[in-house]
Fold this protein.
Amino acid sequence: MPEIFINYRTSDGKDAAYALHHELTRRFGDHMVFLAAQSIPAGEDYSNALTKGVRRSSVLLALIGHRWADAVHPERPGIRALDHEDDWVRREIEEAFAHGVAVVPVLIGRNTEQLDPRRLPDSIARLADCQYMRFTLRTARHDLALIGDQLAKQVPGLAAADRGSQPAAPDDPPAGPAPDDGTPRDPGPGMHSSGQHGGIGNISGRIGTVVGEANAPFHTGSGDHIDGTQVNGDGNVVGGSGHGGINQNFGPARRRRREDDR
């Protein structure tokens, strides 16, 4: 049963999602992390699998890049994906909120800004108020380690399975090439809240608002998506367990969604 559900938009979060999946499965085990492209067996109903995956998780990591909010619906040119109830990114976050799954926004890249609740559907507007973390290409190794550390602190099941944070081995695949987008070098990973930017250990000696030390680090049932600078890989942390039976689907029956429709 997965503890971590990775929610992402294919157009600007797929690489980061795979990077998170690679590291989090290495650290906690394959069965602890749910990523649609990797975790749904051939022949299984896609919609039902996603529904169960969200509800059975303890935390949903919402990967948000700089194009996340304005991504166009794959079947409705010129129309924002978020404005439609059949958008999987939106539906997964709604499901997490509805079933008490902690949602952690992961902002991709240094130029990705916090979400504006006024630009979000009412059903996921609180995503903008959730404590977030940041994942940047140039500090990918440190960011991945910090995200894993925070998850291990907040979710008992992950702490028990934790194999430990360690630098990637020489033969491990890199997070990806350095982006040629003018993104300034991130001083380091960390938990962030409004106007705060954290650093980590040897990088800057500073750290922002740490989930495990905050009085109310996360809004249970809310989550964010990540976009912005992409990293080779696919990918919320804290409190609460969304475990339980799954007998419902996301609204009325819909056609099977392809990976590129996310």
User: Anything to note?
Assistant: Residues 168-257 have pLDDT under 50 and may be disordered. Residues 10-28 form the longest helix (19 residues).
